[in-house]
Amino acid sequence: LLVENLLLVPVCLILVELAGKGVDQPLLPRLRRILLDLAKMPMLIGLALGLVVSIIGIALPGPLMRSIDMFAVSAGAVALIVIGGSLVGLPLHGNRSLAAQISASKLLLHPALVALVAAVLLALGLITLPPALHSAVILSAAMPMFGIYTVLAQRQGLEGAASLAMLTGTSCAFVTLTGLLWVLT
C-alpha cells in the first residue's frame, strides 16, 4: 500500500494530468503545477507525514496514540461514508463502452499480466515466491478498483464512466474472483 499510494498513484496522476488539458503549454511549468497540486492532496500529505514519523522513530504520547487507535479502528467505516458521500448524485450513465473496457481490464487483463510477469520472474530465478504468496499476488491484482477511483476520476470529468465501471467491476468481481480462487486452489 505504501508503494502504491506514495509512488504509483502520484505517477499515474502526473501522467493523467500531462495527457489532459494544456498539452500545448511548456512541459516544465505544467509539471511544476502538477507536482504542487499533488503535494496539496490530503491523502499524500498524511501518508508522507506518517512515513516521516515512522522513519524518525518519534514516540507519540499515550493519549495521542489512543486517539489515533480509535480513528484507526473506525477508519474503514468513515472512509466508506466519505467516499459514499462524494458519490451521491454522480450519474451511473456515461460511456458504457469505456466502463466495460475498464472493468474487463481490471478484472481480467490486470491479473493475467501480473500472473505472466510473476511466472517469468520465477522462471528466470529473479524472485522466489511460495505458492500461497504467488496466489495472493494474483488475487490482489484481480480485486476491483478502490473506492477512491471515482473520486480521482472526478478531477478529469470522468465520474460517470468511473462510477459505472466501479459498479460493474465490483459486481462482476464476485464471479471473476470465485473463478480465480477455484483455478488457484
Question: Could you describe the 3D structure shown?
Answer:
The structure is a single chain. By secondary structure, the chain is mainly alpha-helical. The protein has a domain at 92-185. It is built from 8 helices and no strands. The chain has helices spanning 2-19, 27-39, 42-56, 62-87, 96-123, 131-141, 148-154, 159-184. The two termini are 25 Å apart.
Summary tags:
185 residues; mainly alpha; 8 helices; 0% strand; globular
User: Roughly what is the average pLDDT, rounded to an integer?
Assistant: 82
Structural class by secondary-structure content: mainly alpha
Uncertain segments are none
Give a short account of the largest sheet: none
Count of helix runs: 8
Distance between the termini: 25 Å
Strand content: under 5%
Percent helix, as a range, is over 70%
- Element order: H for helix, E for strand: HHHHHHHH
Rg: 19 Å
Strand count: 0
Please state the overall shape, judged from the principal axes of the Cα atoms.
globular
